[in-house]
Amino acid sequence: MLLFALGVLIIAAGLAVSIALHEVGHLVPAKLFGVRVTQYMIGFGPTVLSRTRGETEYGLKAIPLGGYIRMIGMYPPHKGEPEGTIREDSTGLIQQMTSMSEDAKAYESAQYGPEDAHRTFVALSVPKKLVVMLGGPTMNLLISVLLMVVLVSGIGLPSVTPTVQSVSQCVVPADAPADVSCEGRPEAPAKAAGILPGDVLREIDGHEITRWSDVTTAVRAAEDRTVEVVVERDGELLPLEATMVVDARPVLDADGQAVLDADGNYVTEQVGFLGVAGTPALVRQSPAQVPELAWDAFTRTGQIVVTLPVRLYEVAQAAFGSAERDPNGPLGVVGVSRLAGEVAAADEPGFALREKVGTMISMLASLNMALFVFNLVPLLPLDGGHVAGALLEGIRRMIARLRGRPDPGPVDMSRMLPLTNAVAIVFLLMTLLLLYADIVKPITLFP
């Protein structure tokens, strides 16, 4: 139980640091561009702890589910009267929307005097607005990539090594069960050659072996010839001779995975067969692997975000019905915390401290990638909504210049407040749904 709680605390601390650095990504460029930042807060709700440094209050809130910085002048200044005249035949909804916009601008304008008008967010140029609003998500992307570097080069990725884990007793079909009988079947070439579990394959048919894919390539190319196999045993190199056999083995894709047909059966080819299995282990790799890993994480996360409504519907089916949770589906804070606790408390064979640390780092990297992608969604109150507003402002100004018209000024994002509030309600409902599902129908790593 203590280890479970430790795992929860580790992931909670990692998430809190990620959120804090996300807000630093907004804070630093805003201050560099001269914007007056009045608050830097981690969490929401009542303030638990705060301290004012210069013109900014730094603090912690009671509900640690996010954070924010407060910049003055997020909306154009209030003019005292609504920008448009409300006709007598205007609907009540339009009146309410206009009133909401004007009230928000009036509140914003009351937070600063004329002397600070040039220090508002709305006074920034479009490029500077983009830098400020993209600073937070970019920080999460950098954290994710940095964690991936630590994972790849420091901890290692799951891989199969050339250390022999097991030796086949005979030549059996690729899809044969583990307890298949060897009666009437030819002896496996590896067993006949004297290869033993624990041997490290160093050379096959003159090909140097450094990774498991080298073994696969050399063995398949050997066909049915007798070749020299050099193994390392007890620190010494031992040359052996193995007479390969040609057998139907699975076709492998570019990632070394067996190819299946439409019915789920192996697609096979006639190639050389030795009869050894490598040992799974964490293998440190070059940081050059990180870009591909990051792109894969980005695309997978993007697919989840794009299909989020469907996935949330599936979560609701599982939470309120008999359907099973998708192990690759969305998780809430409780679900992530539960998985972290399971990782820390796990007592599974082959899942030692190094594997636990690697899994924790992988989880934090995935969380930061999720924060990066999710915040790019072009909806307020997400950062992507402000980015979309800045881009629209830039397009309007460019069109005005091309047509020789006056500068139309900044986009009035206060007009989007009704939609912003609606999106916020949807996010709240999503959070509550995931919270409930994580409690009544949790996803587990070790069923």
Automatic annotation (TrEMBL):
Question: Does the record bear Transmembrane in its keywords?
Answer: yes
What membrane topology does the UniProt entry give?
Answer: Multi-pass membrane protein
- Gene3D superfamilies on file: 2.30.42.10
**Which residue ranges traverse the bilayer?**
130-152, 357-377, 416-437
PDZ domain segment(s)? 183-233
Q: Which InterPro entries match?
A: PDZ_6, PDZ_sf, Pept_M50_Zn, Peptidase_M50
Q: Which cofactor does it need?
A: Zn(2+)
The entry's cellular-component GO terms read: membrane
- Swiss-Prot/TrEMBL keywords: Hydrolase, Membrane, Metalloprotease, Protease, Transmembrane, Transmembrane helix, Zinc
Q: What is the annotated localization of this protein?
A: Membrane
Q: Does the keyword Zinc apply?
A: yes
Q: Which Pfam families match?
A: PDZ_6, Peptidase_M50
- Name the domain of life this protein comes from: Bacteria
What biological process terms from GO does the record include? proteolysis
Family to which the UniProt record says this protein belongs: Belongs to the peptidase M50B family.
Tell me the protein's name: Membrane-associated protease RseP (Regulator of RpoE activity)
